[in-house]
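User: For my dataset I need records formatted as: sequence, then structure tokens, nothing else. Please produce one.
Assistant:
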Amino acid sequence: MMKYLFLNTPFQILSWYFFVLLGMVVGIGLAVIKRPEKDFPVTRGGIFACGLLMFCLAILGSKNLYILLYWDSFSVEEGLSWTRMFADAGYASLGAFSFYLLGIFMFTKFRVILKVADYAIPFTVLAQAFTKIGCFFAGCCYGKPTKLPWGVICPGETEVPVHPTQIYSSIYLLVVFFFMRSLYKKTPPPGITFFSGMLLYSVLRFLNESLRVDSVSLNDKITLSQGAIP
């Protein structure tokens, strides 16, 4: 694992941030290039602008949810401003997903939101797949100890091999992306692509969460992410 890329150069960057940005570029770029030519309510320029809006809102939503979930760890330091908490906070994907939808809703009329969501969400899922690779390089979001041959040790975090749940996540996100794109090309009724893809994603995410060690628990048997979508 590499926490930083391009070491000892002027372009040194956290691996997680690199893959988040790479995912954004790939996701938005493909969304613009693959825009349907007929009867789609948003232009290519609109898709680009909507993609940037969704990205910014996702960062805002994920960080704010992280602050709420781990409020006790922030409130220990008295007088800590929201700006400082926001800068130090990690990212909660449930908050990102919620604000993704908010971004689509803000950018489109409600009557066409499902049609836009059918098109936009697969590329959002693709971008998230890159983000999870960044999590792997950063050594966060890892799983429980395992004796399987592909178990990995996270330097500074674990002393024994653990499930690379970040890679599991990246793989199933790619599966969901290709499934949603394949379904979308068959032109089903509005909403079918989105809800079918989210159902598949939710099942895979539920299974993967059972291997995670750092998820927020609702009780002793279920985590926050298992109790919600995604």
